[in-house]
Amino acid sequence: xxxxxxxxxxxxxxxxxxxxxxxxxxxxxxxxxxxxxxxxxxxxxxxxxxxxxxxxxxxxxxxxxxxxxxxxxxxxxxxxxxxxxxxxxxxxxxxxxxxxxxxxxxxxxxxxxxxxxxxxxxxxxxxxxxxxxxxxxxxxxxxxxxxxxxxxxxxxxxxxxx
Length: 162
What we know:
The chain is mostly helical. It is built from eight helices and no strands. It has helices spanning 2-5, 9-31, 34-50, 61-84, 102-107, 111-121, 127-134, 138-157. α2 (9-31) packs across α4 (61-84) and α6 crosses α8. The protein is globular, with a radius of gyration of 17 Å. Residues 92-99 have low confidence and may be disordered.
C-alpha cells in the first residue's frame, strides 16, 4: 500500500488483480446486478487509490478494501431506498421458479445484516474481520447475523413471500 500511496501504478494493478474478483462477488451479492457491482468495485478501487496514503498497516489490505466496498454498497442501497421508498430486492436474470427466492428474502433483511451475512457465509470471514470491516463490535456482528438469519428463516419459511 505504501507503493500505491506513492503513485506506483504497477503496485495498484497488482492489488486490483489480487482483489477485484472477490470484491466483485461481494458487490454482486449485495447489489444484485453485475453492472451495479462493477460500478461499486470501480468506485471502491478509486477510493482505495486516492486514499492509499491514509491506509494503516495494522489493517489487512483485504479488510480495508472490504470496508471501502461495503460502505460504497451500503450507500448505493440507501440511494435505492430513498428513490423507491423501500429496498428493492436485487434482480437477477434467472428464470422464475429456478431457485429458491433467496433474493426476495434477502431484500427483507436490513442492509447491515445483509452485508454481514454475505461476508460471513459466502466469503468465510471471521467475526473479528467483520467487526473491523464494518467498524462495529464483535457482539454487534453476532447480533446482526442472528437477526439476519432469523428474518431469512421466517421469510423462507413462508415460501419467500414478503
